[in-house]
Amino acid sequence: MRWIRYQHNNEPPRYGWLENDGTEIGIVHGAPFGERQREEPSIPLETVRLLPPTTPSKIICVGRNYAAHAAEHNAPVPEIPLIFLKPPSALIGPGDAIILPPQSQQVEHEAELAVVIGKRGRWISPEAATDYILGYTIANDVTARDLQRRDGQWTRGKGFDTFCPVGPWIDTNFDPADALVTCRVNGDTRQMGSTREMIFRIPQLIAFISSIMTLEPGDLILTGTPSGVSPLHDGDVVEVEIDRLGTLTNPVKAETPK
Ligand code: ZN
Questions:
Q1: Mean pLDDT (whole number) for 242-250
Q2: Contact (CB, 8 A) for 4 and 18
Q3: 11 and 111 in a common domain
Q4: Are 5 and 17 in contact (CB under 8 A)?
Q5: Which of 75, 86, 234, 246 could, after both became Cys, cross-link 254 (CB 3.0–4.6 A)?
Q6: How far does the centroid of ligand 1 lie from the alpha carbon of residue 113, in Å?
Q7: In the 8-state DSSP scheme, what is residue 66?
Q8: How is 156-181 classified by DSSP, letter by letter?
């Protein structure tokens, strides 16, 4: 099953659900994380605007979780997970524009599988980790590479508005063990790698992160990117596809300084 967040006409955003590969949305009263009621599918998917499928309290990202991506930056593979945060203000949904800020000359895509947390937890064991997962979605960890390199901290390079496209849905049946993660820019394949190449597996990541901070329902964990990151330019269209999960598509636009 798939959870979405959407806006229909000018009504307030709400949650909906879809059968896998379904084309009609069922209205959800409440939220996927708690008390809720589902109506039968009735609204054609193409008539709504899809929003980021969750409103996380935080977005935790894992750096260099694929050896080939670490190697393309001449960076060592970490011995423990290397984590950082993106602000929720960076979230955009499918079809929304990634805005290239004037402060950077090198904004790059990073195609990633994202985990959506389903219930609150701290000190979660790797064995219990799957009980805390609501499902999976697709993310693009957009990065101002020049600023990331210049700053010791990654908040600026990773944190601009629009630098976290997520969606189109949360899939509750997806198996993350061995799925191909692909990124295309204007139809050209730039990144392709399997989730089986991850250095730290998802249960280990959840155990590690929850030993530091409480995970809340709706929180997102971006699990790292395969090799092949490359610059984005005004007018590009970037697609992140994950096998059996879907495709997240966003146009790219330059921002003119105010
Ligand atoms: Zn990343």
A1: 97
A2: yes
A3: no
A4: no
A5: 234
A6: 10
A7: B
A8: HHHHSTT-EEEEEEEESS---SS-EE
CA pair distance 14, 16, nearest whole angstrom: 7
Contact indicator for 48, 25 with CB cutoff of 8 Å: yes
- Residue 131 and residue 206 in one domain: yes
Q: Indicate the number of domains in the chain.
A: 2
Could you tell me the distance, in angstroms and rounded to a whole number, from the CA of residue 68 to the centre of ligand 1? 13
| pLDDT band, residue 254 (cuts 50/70/90) | very high
Q: Count of residues for the chain?
A: 258
Report CA(109)–ligand 1 centroid distance (Å): 9
Angle CA(112)–CA(203)–CA(143) in degrees, nearest 5? 25
Q: How far is the CA of 61 from the centre of ligand 1 (A)?
A: 6
- Distance (Å) from CA 62 to ligand 1 centroid: 6
Domain holding 112, by residue range, is: 59-254
Tell me the per-residue pLDDT of 31-44, one tens digit each, with 9 for 90 and over: 998 889 999 999 99
CA of 203 to the centre of ligand 1 (A): 18
